[in-house]
Amino acid sequence: MVNTLRMLGRTGLDFFQRLGRAHLLLLAVLAGVPPLALRFSLVIRQLHSVGVLSLLIILVSGLFVGMVLGLQGYNTLVDFGAAESLGVVVALSLVRELGPVVTALLFAGRAGSALTAEIGLMKATEQLSAMEMMAVDPVRRVLSPRFLAGFLAMPLLAAIFSAVGVLGGWFVGVGLLGVDDGAYWSQMQAKVDLYDDIWNGVVKSIVFGAVVTWIAIFEGYDAVPTSEGVSRATTRTVVHSALAVLGLDFILTALMFGD
Amino acid sequence: MTSRTVEIGVGIFVALGMAALFMLAMKVSNLAAYRTGPSYEVTARFEDVSGLKVRSPVTMAGVRIGRVKAIEFDDEALQAVVTLEIAQRHNRLPRDTSASIYTAGLLGEKYIGLEPGGEEESLRPGDQIRLTQDSMVLEKLLSQFIAKFLEDKRQ
Predict the structure, then answer these.
(1) What is the pLDDT of residues A38-91, one digit of tens each?
(2) Which of A90, A157, A198 to mutate to test the interface with B (most CBs of B within 10 A)?
(3) What's the pLDDT at B105?
(4) Chain A with chain B: Cβ pairs closer than 8 A
(5) Which of A176, A226, B38, B69 is the most buried (most CB within 10 A)?
(6) Contacts of residue B91, Cβ cutoff 8 Å, sequence gap at least 6
(7) Confidence of residue B35 (pLDDT cuts 50, 70, 90)
(8) With a CB-CB cutoff of 8 Å, which residues 17-56 of chain B face chain A?
(9) Could you give phi then psi for residue A13, rounded to 5 degrees?
């Protein structure tokens, strides 16, 4: 009985300690962001690995998600004689929800896991300690550029996802199923609002980008420095990021569209 | 990988992202409808504007010539005051133009339709449209219809 209580207390303490360490790390990382303006080449290199290398999976997924939305939306709408509204359905689902959320999930799997593995391995092979020995702050040199790159890349990736998805829906709806081209675009433009829909989608993707990158670099930096520890940290990054993205998405949606 | 290819890759990535955002703003959303260019404002009073929203279209002969800029409630007259923003190049509407609230389709959005009158003088900025017709509320119409139907039956 006492042992069970002790276990519970220990788990709780561990959890809050990790949470505390994560927030302290975030503060240190954010403090390292402004000086990066002088050494932007570090960020460019990271933008390449989190942004450019994620581009292909984002383009392909966006295209197929848009095409499926076009097909499913058409089959449902045509029963009500409202196939002209296909553009609205495709654009609103992509811009409000699927764009930011699916991009964030793919981003966690593609870029977040890579960040954790890289940083965890740097720790396991004592590269981070070596930097400290040379009086180079590993948080500023290694973590801050990665955080800034993830923060910048995610909104761009989500926008690319949504734009490609809208084109995919257009390709299926207008190209294959015969929805009127003019109706597809004009109904979309009449119903999609620049602030309510597009801007809120961008805000969502910025929040998701920051959270996923934060989780990824914290898990890497906090990993047990063994091969097993790094592999566990990588798994945790993907699982925790996915949960955080889906939970935050509900909260953000309730705040933005809930009134 | 040389830093040159890395930089070119990042450049392409950022350009693609910006282009996607630009496409979402211009092609997908209603940004185009925000730009009305130079315009002037006239007001109109209605007893009932239910369903009308800020940015609803203002049309004449079915052509969009402006939008609703504001909807306010006048505490004195207990009426709705609607401010219409009409494009400057349509500045020769007759003074006795009338405004009505219509519905696009059976359940569609409300918009304001203007019908020209016959006067020589034209509406000036800040003028008020005198002749207005209220928004049609389906429930009100139905209850009127039912009341009339019952009355006819009784006779």
Answers:
(1) 888 889 999 999 999 999 999 999 999 999 999 999 999 888 878 888 888 999
(2) A198
(3) 66
(4) 83
(5) B69
(6) B40, B122, B123
(7) low
(8) 17-21, 23-25, 27-34
(9) -60, -45
- Digit-coded pLDDT (tens) for A128-140: 999 999 998 898 8
3-state helix, strand, coil in chain B (%, to 5): 30, 35, 35
Provide the chain A residues 111-150 that lie in CB contact (below 8 A) with chain B.
Answer: none
CA B72 to centroid of chain Cα atoms:
15
Taking the CB of residue B93, how many other CB atoms lie within 10 A of it? 20
This complex has an ipTM of: 0.81
- Bridge-based pairing of strands B39-46 and B110-115 is unpaired
Given a cut of 50, the residues of chain A with pLDDT beneath it are: none
The partner residue sitting opposite A51, judged by closest CB among B13, B18, B19, is B13
Hey, is B64 helix, strand or coil? strand
